[in-house]
UniProtKB/TrEMBL annotation:
Keyword Kinase attached: no
Span of the signal peptide: 1-28
PANTHER family assigned: INOSINE-URIDINE PREFERRING NUCLEOSIDE HYDROLASE, URIDINE NUCLEOSIDASE
Pfam family, one: IU_nuc_hydro
Gene Ontology MF annotations: hydrolase activity
Keyword Signal applies: yes
InterPro entries xref list: I/U_nuclsd_hydro_CS, Inosine/uridine_hydrolase_dom, IUNH, Ribo_hydro-like
Keywords: Glycosidase, Hydrolase, Signal
Domain Inosine/uridine-preferring nucleoside hydrolase: 34-332
Name used for this protein in its record: Nucleoside hydrolase
Gene3D superfamilies assigned to the protein according to its UniProt record, in alphabetical order: Ribonucleoside hydrolase-like
Length: 342
């Protein structure tokens, strides 16, 4: 009996040690130094609240805005609104490119409303924009950053980052990873039969980023169209019963209508918020490293992402393409973070 008790005591001690090591390593997990580039946009605002509610994991250096869903003045105001709603006016907002690099500008007011944010009242937020253009902010910050230390979350057309890369290619030294909501392969497009909006809105910019050699992760429609709202999930968010969850519920109730109708789905995607979930809990998602090219030629495939999923061309893998995700795990995490806000 004595030997058995001794063995049990040893086992208990090693389990205790193991749990302590796991706990400390989780705490000590590196914070992600993050810049979020965004064109709010309904799903952008949900993503921003999600990210701004997660300071333990995300050290958000700045929000940089770009024209996309709506014009730059409105995407910049909406980013400032999201910041105010999250109680995070410590995070600066820099306005960036007012239009795509080459193509004629397009917008998505039909989906996001004239103000770029339907379902909620929009107004002039208290705190203004930071001084200076987002492109210069990206250049200065990434040039001065420790090697490969800063992650970029791209939630709209990639114009700002592309312009920064063209002006100062050596900024790649400061970039750890670029996580992009954009593209479509298995799913087909949402703005044309083959193109997703962010890529279609500035394919030349996406090409510059793809060719920069930085570590890229794409969250395309292939995965965002598998992470859909439902009555139960909207109820789950509403049950949080604070201001932030009310705002998210009101935004989503309006925002998902377009996709539900267009695709005949029982729920709608929250595209940009999947980027934040990926940063916080990558284990919710699966994908593979692939070669991706984007078509910037005028014509029916303008803005299409061509993904060599089966590596037929044996071309260099230039992106991690996320193809699947745990939908309920996403909504559980989003709900848990919204509950941390007021
Ligand atoms: O196609 C979806 C993407 O386009 C999202 O980022 C949405 O906000 C729009 O910008
Ligand atoms: Ca967006």
């Amino acid at each position: 009996m004595h030997r058995y008790a001794q063995k049990m005591r040893q086992l208990f001690r090693s389990l205790l040690l193991l749990s302590l090591i796991t706990a400390t390593s989780a705490q000590a997990a590196e914070k992600i130094d993050l810049i979020i580039d965004t064109d709010p946009g309904a799903d952008d605002v949900v993503a921003l609240l999600f990210a701004l509610a997660s300071p333990e994991e995300l050290n958000i250096r700045a929000l940089t805005t770009v024209a996309g869903n709506v014009r730059l003045d409105k995407t910049s105001r909406n980013a400032r609104l999201a910041r105010e709603w999250a109680g995070r006016e410590d995070v600066p907002v820099y306005a960036g490119a007012p239009k795509p690099m080459m193509r004629t500008p397009i917008y998505a007011e039909n989906i996001h409303g004239k103000e770029g944010l339907s379902g909620v009242e929009v107004y002039e937020p208290k705190k203004g924009l930071a001084k200076g253009n987002a492109v210069n902010y990206l250049i200065d910050t990434l040039k001065a950053a420790k090697p490969h230390s800063i992650t970029l979350a791209m939630l709209g057309p990639q114009t700002n980052l592309a312009l920064a890369l063209i002006q100062e290619p050596e900024i790649v030294q400061g970039i750890k990873e670029v996580v992009i909501m954009g593209g479509a392969h298995f799913n087909g497009g949402n703005i044309t039969p083959v193109a997703e909006f962010n890529l279609y809105a500035d394919p030349q910019a996406a090409e510059v980023v793809l060719k920069s050699g930085v570590k890229l992760t794409y969250l395309p429609l292939d995965v965002t169209h598998k992470i859909l709202t439902s009555e139960a999930r909207l109820k789950q968010i509403a049950a949080v019963n604070n201001k932030a969850s009310k705002i998210v519920g009101d935004i989503l109730n309006e925002y998902v209508k377009g996709d539900m109708e267009h695709y005949g789905m029982t729920g709608g995607p929250v595209h940009d918020a999947t980027v934040v979930a990926y940063l916080l809990k990558p284990e919710l998602f699966t994908g593979r490293s692939v070669n991706v090219v984007v078509d910037s030629r005028e014509g029916p495939t303008f803005g299409q992402t061509i993904v060599d999923w089966y590596d037929g061309l044996k071309a260099p893998k230039n992106a991690y393409w996320v193809q699947d995700g745990d939908a309920q795990g996403f909504f559980d995490l989003l709900t848990e973070r919204l509950a941390r806000l007021k």
